[in-house]
Design brief:
The protein is α+β, with helices and mostly antiparallel strands. It has helices at about 30, 40-50, 50-60, 95-110, 115-125, 180-185, 200-210, 265-275, 295-300, and strands at about 1-10, 10-20, 25-30, 70, 75, 85-90, 140, 155, 165, 165-175, 190-195, 200, 225-235, 245-250, 250-260, 285, 305-310, 315-325. The protein folds into two domains: about 1-75, no CATH class; about 85-325, Fumarylacetoacetase-like, C-terminal domain (Fumarylacetoacetate hydrolase, domain 2, Alpha-Beta Complex), CATH 3.90.850. Strands 1, 2, 3, 4, 5, 6, 7, 10, 11, 13 and 16 form an eleven-stranded mixed β-sheet that branches. A five-stranded mixed β-sheet has the order 8-18-17-14-15, with no helix packed on it. One of its GO terms (biological process) is small molecule metabolic process.
Length: about 325
């Protein structure tokens, strides 16, 4: 099943919707089950577990025309505000290309005296353990309060001249726990979505030059962590490590890749992370950026304005509009 969060024209109240797979209509589950708290939001549905999914499946099989919503009569919202966001190192092939570009940017745009080769070795050494599949899954935190909606307008952030997208597959955690076994781990995944980890490349390079890491204020600025347009349940995607992924900018394909680049699976991530700390239902975990899934790797820059569309097979298109700051 494919779930969305939306509101109707003239009514800003968020509602939970179920795609009827005809490409035209959705079932308003909040209206279909007005007395059931499991359908008050997508997070409530995740918390309801199997009971909520069973009721949603019944609504899918027995369409009620009174609660159908035409696609053109709804505005998509962010699926939900995650209880926690982690950007994991499940795909790391993007890193070496980005590190090369970062080293080149520093040599060309700063007074740093080190050579490109020296900078590359030093920066690459920071991340080299992540390239080894034997290394337990690592992650970086993201701020759930910076989630934004599909089709939203993103103002170019002040203080940066190099805004960049990052194409990622993401999993939604459906059950919490600690010390989750490999045999149980997959059952803790609720479903999958498309994630864009917006980044400021010039800020990121300056942070790296100062020894302040690769993230910091280069991430988590307002509206910088969109995911969507829907959440697709786990059963709809039996092989999440075999999905085509692509990026279009103003209608032109800029990058293509595949989730086959993952060196760890989501169940492995569940096993590894839950062995270190508790995980909870309602978390969103990114894979890390697919190779060629950012403009920085390609030596390109977004125009202003730009329509950026991230697409993953079997899930859909996460689109956002980038405009210059007024």
């Amino acid at each position: 099943m494919r779930f969305v969060t939306f509101h109707r024209p003239g009514d800003p109240t968020p509602r939970l919707g179920l795609d009827n797979t005809d490409g035209e209509t959705y079932t308003d589950l909040t209206a279909r089950y007005p007395e059931d708290p499991a359908f008050a939001s997508m997070l409530a549905l995740i918390d309801a577990g199997g009971r909520g999914l069973d009721a949603a499946w019944e609504a899918y099989q027995k369409l009620d025309e009174a609660v159908l919503v035409e696609q053109d009569a709804m505005t998509l919202l962010a699926p939900f505000t995650p209880r926690r966001m982690r950007d994991c190192g499940l795909i790391v092939s993007h890193l070496r290309q980005s590190i090369s570009r970062t080293a080149r940017w520093i040599t060309e745009h700063t007074d740093d005296a080190r050579s490109y080769a020296t900078l590359y070795r030093q920066l690459d050494g920071t991340f080299s353990p992540l390239y080894d599949p034997a290394t337990p899954v690592q992650y970086a935190e993201r701020n759930p309060e910076t989630v934004s909606a599909p089709n939203a307008v993103l103002e170019w952030p002040a203080g940066s001249d190099y805004l960049d997208y990052e194409l990622e597959l993401a999993a939604v955690i459906g059950r919490g726990g600690t010390y989750i076994t490999p045999e149980e781990a997959e059952q803790h995944v609720f479903g999958y979505t498309v994630y864009n980890d917006w980044s400021l490349r010039d800020v990121q390079a300056r942070n790296a030059l100062a020894g302040a890491g690769a993230h910091g204020n280069a991430k988590d600025f307002p509206e910088s962590n969109p995911f969507g347009p829907c959440v697709v349940t786990r059963d709809e995607i039996p092989d999440p490590q075999n999905l085509r992924m692509s990026v279009r900018v103003n209608g032109e394909t800029w990058g293509e890749g595949s989730s086959a680049q993952m060196i760890h699976s989501f169940p492995e991530a569940v096993e590894h992370i839950s062995a270190r700390e508790p995980i909870v239902a309602g978390e969103v975990w990114g894979t890390g950026t697919v190779r060629n899934g950012s403009s920085f790797e390609l030596g390109r820059r977004l125009p202003r304005p730009a329509l950026v569309e991230l697409e993953i097979e079997r899930i859909g298109v996460l689109a956002q509009y980038v405009i210059p700051k007024p």
